[in-house]
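# nightly structure sweep
# worker-07 picked up a monomer target from the shared queue
# config: single-sequence mode, recycle default, output format = structure tokens
# input follows
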Amino acid sequence: MPEFSVIVPVYNRPVEIDELLTSLKNQSYSNFEVLIIEDGSSVPCEDIVKKHAKELDVRYFFKENSGQGFSRNFGFERAKGNYLIVFDSDCLIPSHYFQTISEYLEKHRLDAFGGPDRSHQNFTSVQKAISYSMTSFLTTGGIRGKKDHIGAFHPRSFNMGISKEVFAKTKGYILPKKGEDIEFSIRIIENGFKTGLIEEAYVYHKRRTSFRQFFKQLHFFGTARINIGRFYPQEVKWVHWFPSIFMVGLVTSVLLLAILPWLGQLGLAVYGIYFSVLFIHALLTEKSLKVALLSVVAAFIQLNAYGLGFIQEGFVYVLRDK
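# output follows
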């Protein structure tokens, strides 16, 4: 019986699955199986999976489209391992990953765990910039995958593991998408299970390959946070308001240029200082002028897209409530 079962939902991304499975073939620890759950794709990856079947313990399932949360449940129900690992299809897994979590779990009992994400050296400059923006302490992405997070650790579904006991008690995801992993993590903790961050169990997360895709993704994240607030109002914290405040402040500063120029200029100067600091930090972190410049663009998109989605979904929530 495998110790770990890897569950990967996929929708029209055969190339990503090929890269993910290739990275899984290079693991130093091999006692795991892989379940690829095709979520009603029009461009299936079955042939890709078959290509890797000789070197991996991999199973392929095709089902009607239901969203990634319910597709993960589909995989959980069919998994054989003691721990169920969830990856996004756009992840690459370093060769030490399963060895790392196996050794960690021998010393530290965890019911659910997760790890951070990093940028791979082969990523494009845009992907590296997006990765920086999503993980930097200067943006909202910095609250994830850090040891000094506040409160219990909430694993996220791009890199997450749960015991079979967790699934048996919680029955998995209750949302198909739009914050489904946040809700699941909250419910795991509320059921008394112990969660933790395994810092060296990182993955290379490609996220999105263009700023247009990145905008859509972060806008979705903003709406998802409000969706979580429907179930857990206490989970909409001050930090989640920051992108909306950022966006409103920027628009207000621009508009003030026509009414009170000095005040508008002061507001824009504050934003200029913020992005200058972010640029310098990105340059020191990424050691690339191009990536640092693109990181400023990525951060601008991240904050405004999330803030816009947060506000729009908030208005919808208020109108529905009335």
